[in-house]
Amino acid sequence: MDNVERGGRPPSGTQWTIEGDGQEAVVVEIGGGLRGYRADGVDYLDGYEVDEICAGSAGQVLAPWPNRIRDGRYTFAGESRQLPLTEPDRHNAMHGLVNWLPWRLVERSTNSVTVACELPAQPGYPWSLDLRTSWRIDARGLRARHEVTNTGTAPAPFGLAAHPYLRIPAAPVDDLVLRVPGRTRLLVDGRGLPIGAAKVAGTEYDFTDPRRIGDLRLDMAFGDVDRDPDGGSSVTMTGGDHEITIWADEAFGWWQVFTGDTLPGARHRRSVAVEPMTCPADAFRSGRDVIVLAPGEPWSASWGIRTAT
Fold this sequence. Notes:
- The structure is a single chain.
- By secondary structure, this protein is mainly beta.
- The protein has one domain (2-308): Beta-galactosidase, Chain A, domain 5 (Distorted Sandwich), CATH 2.70.98.
- 1% of the residues lie in helices and 47% in strands.
- The strands form seven sheets. It has a nine-stranded antiparallel sheet, with no helix packed on it. A six-stranded antiparallel sheet has the order 17-26-25-22-19-20, with no helix packed on it.
């Protein structure tokens, strides 16, 4: 249903609920992201309440770049740009420009909803984009399909990620068994920005075979991923009798994993953010895996969640 609570408009705007095959998801107007997801009565997404402002980027769509850009400064096509510093304590531009914009309803059915956002050209990012996300539930789980078109007149740099926090009932983060298909990890400085890379083999960060997280603090990007036969990849998390898998197609070459250690209050180390990313942090500066959209060029990518008990 379209949900506007009595007593005022929710901070995340209109709520669109989709359901089917024993599952339910809530997509929100502000940011066009995912506020909740449950399967067979179990909440697998650590989202937020209808009367809360989204915390820790939970469930948000991050575009036209994911993660951080050092000092908000980058150069593209010979021109220097300056973005707003949305992580002021670290002097970074963080998580793109659409996560607090309103997304409009395009199409809806019982088990699916499509929302869209027009990102206008602006100082720091002088290109206009049309973004659409289709959320769908079926017997295979929850699926998100992102479609982006450069509606401007010049090529535009672009990247995208999703930011769901996953949890398993009654299973502390320490006890979760995690598998991440990345063969390398990015080394970062105190501002969360890449300063190098290292292979994970033989280290405590090697999750290519499933193993318990334990007391390890994770907030890092894994790359050089092992691909599935279809070109995609997936991360799996198991606790007790429950298992949750987040998969992404070939457009996503990076997985950011964050155990929530820097989140305040009840959210501290309560769940694990598993983020499919098309490019790593600071990509607008390094150029690493940045997508360049030509004027009028469409782009699309998909990811999703499935569960097992």
